[in-house]
Each structure stands twice: as C-alpha cells, then as structure tokens.
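Weekly structure sync, notes
Attendees: PL (lead), two postdocs, one rotation student
Agenda item 3: pending single-chain targets
PL asked that the sequence for the first pending target be pasted directly into the notes so everyone works from the same version. It is reproduced below exactly as submitted, 76 residues in total.
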Amino acid sequence: MDHYSYLIDRQRRFLLIGMVVLLLAVVFTLTGESVQGWGLPIVSRAEEPKRFWWAVALFYLGGIFFIALYFFGISS
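Predicted structure, written out during the meeting:
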C-alpha cells in the first residue's frame, strides 16, 4: 500500500483530476467530438460548433480549476 499512498493525499487528487480533465479536453479538441457533460450525447465540431466549443471550454476550465486547487493548497 505504500506505493499508492500518494494518491490518498487530497492535494494530489486535485492534481490528478485536473490532469485527466485537461487530457480529455485536448483529446476532444483533436478529435472534433466531445461529450456534453458526463454521460450525455456526443457533440461534433462539424455539426454543432457552438455547443462543441462550449463543452470543450468547460473541460479546459475544469482542469485548470483543479490544478489551481492543487497549486494554491486550497483544502479542507
């Protein structure tokens, strides 16, 4: 269990979640398809560009938010 003890720390979880969400945003940007939230239908850049970019922007902002929580040490 010592190998994974760093995942238990709340601060590192914020960093991990932020990196995963940013990675998803990059993948969605490159593929041109995104989910419009968790478990909702897929939005295509070619068919609905405005909804697509809003969805991708929310993923970018979410990733930056969690990484900021890690760097500024905001924790309860």
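Discussion points:
- Residues 2-72 form one domain.
- The beta strands are 33-35, 42-44.
Action: rotation student to compare against the earlier draft before next sync.
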